[in-house]
Amino acid sequence: MNRAGEQVLIIDDEKDLGWVIGKVLEDEGYRVSKAYSGMKGIEKVRDELPDVVILDIRLPDIDGIELINRIKEINSSTCINNVALLNN
User: Fold this and answer.
1) How far apart are CA 23 and CA 6, in angstroms?
2) Residue 71 and residue 54: Cα distance in Å, rounded?
3) Taking the CA of residue 74 as centre, how many other CA atoms within 13 Å lie in the half-sphere pointing to its CB?
4) What pLDDT, in 10s, does the model give residues 7-54?
5) β-pair type (7-11, 52-56)
């Protein structure tokens, strides 16, 4: 299934990581937007209604599970992929 052209929102407070993920997806034909906090991500979900959200579950301003629940309240059909990358 070709999903190119779909809107992807990346929510991650690490700008470099968001940029890399976004670049890979853009190269594959996806339309990408980014938010660098959970609250900004919620605003973008409301404004853009993305098809897919990729989010860091460890954001400084909102718990990742709470963020998922709030995104689903806005648009229950949004596909959400969460990422937990841990630094030692």
Assistant:
1) 14
2) 11
3) 21
4) 999 999 999 999 999 999 999 999 999 999 999 999 999 999 999 999
5) parallel
